[in-house]
Amino acid sequence: MVLNGDAGNQPGMVATFFRRVAKHFANESAVVTPNGQLLSHHLDQGLEKWRQLPAQQRRKLDVLGEFDASFLPSPPARGLIANVYSRGLRRDGRGELQIYKTKVARSLEAGRDHLWLSESEAMSLLPDELAGGSRKSVDSAIVDRICRRYLIDLVRVGGNGGPRKPENVLRAEMDLTIEAATDSKIRLRIDGSARLATQDVGSGARRDAPKIDDYQLLGSATYDRSSKRFTSFNLVAISETGHYDEIEKRVLPLGVAFELTPGEKPADRVPPSSYSADYFGTKP
Fold first, then answer.
1. Is the pLDDT at 61 greater than 90, yes or no?
2. Rounded CA gap, 234 and 278, in Å?
């Protein structure tokens, strides 16, 4: 089972199960019984405890309440689903980027989220002229969604303070260029940059001034002409100041990676952490 960050706020079965497991989850895993009894946060220890449980206790199912499917929206049909990974980074003595880890649990694994594009939004990534060298700007709604909901410090689930407000996107642009076009596929290059303001003090802003972060974006995508679907979508965003270690009070680089997934696994179909009725719009 995969639990999104707001699972504890949902009514009925999901909230009951979530609260039995733990009062708070942040990029963690757990081995639990079907009734939500927490066995361990470590897989090997949890499996060992599971083996020791009597068979009757393994099969026991309590009535936890009703399941409301409206709280679990499905990805858009024939749209694009991208897994999102966010990491605090550091530079070593040679200036090379390395993964930044501390003793705090949430720094041990990448922060995770999902980006959804509707079918029409995915198709809008293609330039009108499908020939090598053709170029177009990415639709502003897509750029806005990426900047406000994903270029945030996702090292914490959903980011410190959640999605940015529209006024905190100071500048943002993304362009697509066809690098190669054949009868079977189209390969695109993605280039972009953004300047974003962070108002949250827990993310490094001062009380009298926001923290300003500049991002560079680079990626690629492949479109299959026979299936009329994207078969790859890879995008990386880097900011030298995007991550703030709130324990050591350090400003560090942040890396955010987007990777296309077919969405066949339940974990890949979890709604975006900031999903709401206006997710496909530009409202705050």
1. no
2. 25
